[in-house]
Amino acid sequence: MSSLRLDNIYTDGMVVPANKPFKISGQAIRNTQVALEVLDKTYSVKANEKGDWVIEIAPIPIQVTTNIKISSLDEFIVLKKVRTGTVILLTGQSNIEFKFRDDSEYQEQIAHLNLKNVYFYNVPQLEYQDDKITLPKDLETSKWQIANAETLWEMSDIGFWMIKKLHELNPDEVIGIVDCYKGGTSISSWVPESVLNSDNKLIDTFVKPFKIATTNKSKADYEQEFSDYNAAVEKHNTDLAKFQSENPKVSLSDAKDRVGHTPWPPPMTPTSYLRPNGLFHTMIEQVKNYVVDKVVWYQGENDAPNPDVYGTMLKGLIISWRKLFCDKSLPFYVVQLPGYFDEPKDSWAIIRQYQLEVTQNINDVHLISIADTGEKHNIHPTHKRIAGTRIGEIISGNGYDSTPYVYRQQIVGDKLILFVKAAGILSQKGKTEFLVQRNGTWVKQEVNAVGKIIAIDNAENITKIRYAYENYPTCTLFNEFLAPVAPFEMEIK
Predict the structure, then answer these.
(1) How far is CA 410 from CA 319, 419, 439, 444, in A?
(2) Is the dihedral of CA 85, 88, 89, 90 positive or negative?
(3) How many Å apart are CA 129 and CA 465, to the nearest integer?
(4) Contacts with 411 (C-beta within 8 Å, 6 or more apart), sequence order
(5) Contacts from 98-102 at CB under 8 Å and sequence distance 24+?
């Protein structure tokens, strides 16, 4: 086995950022010199006591394809057809993991595919790694691939629609997508220990329950827990099918109210991929030395049981990832959750609010609301065109850097005026109603949009307002590009 190795993401055909320093990392015999040659330039570094090494390479101009040679002692590796372009990290849970092959438009899109210069890499979904850094024998490996009819079936569905739009806007741009996601996961799995240990509420919500669930238990205990869990899932599925058969006119939502939702999550174990901090170490740290231009974060569904801590977690994730990637201004694009009814009351609305607030309070963090999409009783819709296309439009840099949102309020006479960013002119689809709180009582009130402001009459005694503040909202306000005004709650001062 060769002593000189590269970290897994460095393969032939990879895309690195244009006009931006980037890194290549790997392993060699400890304390030996590692050299790198690219475009007539040579770089050198000494491997550390563990044999790890990282070489930073000066920016390479856009639209360059080249080979990179790495050598140490009498060994060498050549990375072929390395391209410069725009590199985007797609990350989060199941709705960004949802594969293009499962999209309702998959066959039609493949039949009329018109893509070029697009490449992607799927980060292996490593769930657990022991202290000896032993990899599971069944772990799938990955490599950089060109996005075409033969490979796109395994790409993120959101990712496909995003690159399709980017390609339409700039057909000659080289795009590299790093897919790094895992379904069914809380944001707590994607942050380092320092984030969870920084706040007593986070400790009580995530750290202590994990410790209780995984302490002083035998193998037989875990086996019994999983046996009980699987039996509960099977019973639920049987009961739901029986109820629907006997009540064919009852909606799926009402059926779930009667029978209950599918049991989730499964029992916690010390090696569960759902454990706090787990995927930060096993997946995000896999690519920590790979330089990216932008991060798209689409997650939050699995945090509905604990929505009140989501803002603290999201802020901690962004700051900790920027530190890990050594890029204090790494742009983040936070996808505000779509509509979905079957969750605890207002839990998704609360998470959307925190997603909005974080983008307003941290530099270079942008909001992409897809609250006008989604299906009422299906958490994994099979059509992602609108969501992915909107993400592509916004991260392209060709227009607004976010979807529209209310950023300022002002009382003028007897009117409450709300000012909207990322809009030239607002349009309304049907009647627009806000929930308005006066003297502790919530009432619906119709509002009007004029230009890029929203006017609410009878402003006296208003203490709080809400727009589309529901799990499954009705969005009626849009900018000129048909992007929705982000749902929000606001105190009136």
Answers:
(1) 32, 8, 19, 20
(2) negative
(3) 47
(4) 417, 459
(5) 98/156, 98/157, 98/158, 98/380, 98/384, 99/153, 99/154, 99/155, 99/156, 99/157, 100/152, 100/153, 100/154, 100/155, 100/156, 100/157, 100/159, 100/160, 101/152, 101/153, 101/154, 102/157, 102/382
Which two structure tokens, joined as six digits, stand for 330? 């790494």
For residues 163 and 294, is the Cβ–Cβ distance under 8 A? no
Q: How many CA atoms lie within 13 A of 446 on its CB side?
A: 4
pLDDT tens, 178-228? 999 999 999 999 999 999 999 999 999 999 999 999 999 999 999 999 999
Averaged pLDDT of the chain: 95
- Mean pLDDT throughout 246-274? 84
Distance (Å, whole) CA 210 – CA 199: 16
387 touches 484 (CB < 8 A) = no
Please state whether 430 falls in left (phi above 0), alpha (psi between -120 and 50) or beta: left
Strands (E), 3-74: 5-6, 15-17, 22-27, 33-38, 41-46, 52-57, 65-72
